[in-house]
From TrEMBL:
This is EAL domain-containing protein. The lineage of its organism: Bacteria, Bacillati, Bacillota, Clostridia, Eubacteriales. It comes from the Bacteria. Residues 24-277 form the EAL domain.
């Protein structure tokens, strides 16, 4: 009886494992296909300049359709791509799409910059800067309108090897943003030596500033250190008016969060930005009937 029970357990366990592996293999297959067929989507989340309420930038975020009308989580897709040697191809795809969007739509939508996430693997391959610059050039986009985001924790781990590529990219006018800043490492001392232009405060810190005076004070000192070093600060994950107000009072210049806008497909973004610039009573560069 005992043997039989444990035998059944093993069968159930194997089925679950099988299901998991099948799911990963399925996502991977869909990812490869969607890159080849050009059906992998790139969505955009607006970034607001608090000073004038303008939607001055947007972050490109990958969206893989799940075949059931939804999307797999971007985090899952990126991690899978990184573990299966696909992240460079994925990164090239997203960068090219985002640059093409910037070149064709950016100016008339009032976007000063488009932001694209980079996996550290994309930076550590040989000739990474030349490769990325060639892609941007081929798209016709202006390097001054491109920001590349790299996660703080992984950048710090491989700074020696990544610094040269980052320097080369920055020399062309590309901005570098330190993503997910303020979790883990968050040493303010090294800020003066980093080849970056923008700090993106992680959502986990944004979430705590209303309830924790200590975290609010940390945010204020980040803002202060950023100012001393000539860096811009973007707060991610702002979802409520109260959070928006606290972030603004801490001196942060840019906000990205559901409070203003969620990530959206290209078509929705165009509509959204056209409506917003209309609502602010500004001249829009959209064609007139
Ligand atoms: P990230 O670069 O830090 O991007 C911000 C994430 O926070 C996005 O999740 C966005 O949808 C989410 N977010 C923004 N505002 C709010 C808010 O107010 N509340 C909440 N709850 N969430 C908010 P997403 O699109 O799921 O992407 C997750 C991560 O996947 C990204 O974090 C980035 O690290 C990675 N990723 C996405 N696209 C790419 C890509 O094309 N290449 C690479 N290498 N990584 C990417
Ligand atoms: Mg990012
Ligand atoms: Mg982030
Ligand atoms: Mg994040």
């Amino acid at each position: 009886r005992y043997a039989k029970e444990s035998g059944q357990g093993a069968v159930i366990y194997n089925e679950r494992l099988d299901e998991l592996i099948r799911t990963e293999a399925d996502v991977l297959r869909r990812l490869k296909e969607s890159i080849q067929q050009g059906t992998l989507e790139v969505w955009y989340q607006p970034i607001v300049l608090l000073e004038n309420g303008g939607y001055s930038a947007a972050e490109a975020l990958v969206r893989l359709p799940d075949g059931r009308g939804g999307y797999f989580s971007a985090g899952q897709v990126i991690s899978l791509a990184e573990r299966n040697g696909l992240v460079e191809e994925l990164g090239d795809y997203v960068l090219s799409r985002a640059c093409a969007f910037m070149r064709t739509q950016g100016e008339r939508l009032g976007l000063r910059r488009i932001s694209v996430n980079l996996s550290v693997q994309q930076l550590l391959v040989g000739n990474s800067a030349d490769h990325l610059l060639a892609l941007i050039e081929a798209s016709g986009a202006d390097t001054g309108r491109i920001t590349l985001e790299i996660t703080e924790s992984v950048l710090i781990q491989s700074l020696d090897r990544a610094a040269q590529a980052l320097d080369k990219l920055r020399q062309t006018g590309i901005h570098i943003a330190l993503d997910d800043f303020g979790v883990g490492y968050s040493s303010l001392n090294y800020l003066s030596n980093l080849p970056v232009d923008i700090l993106k405060i992680d959502r986990s810190l944004t979430k705590q500033i209303l309830t924790s005076p200590k975290q609010y004070a940390l945010l204020r000192s980040i803002v202060e250190m950023a100012a001393i070093n000539g860096l811009m600060v973007v707060a991610e994950g702002v979802e409520t008016r109260a959070e928006q107000e606290a972030i603004a009072s801490a001196g942060v210049q840019y906000i990205q969060g559901y409070y203003y806008a969620r990530p959206m497909a290209e078509k929705e973004l165009k509509q959204f930005l056209a409506e917003k610039s209309g609502a602010r009573g500004e001249e829009t560069a959209l064609p007139r009937a």
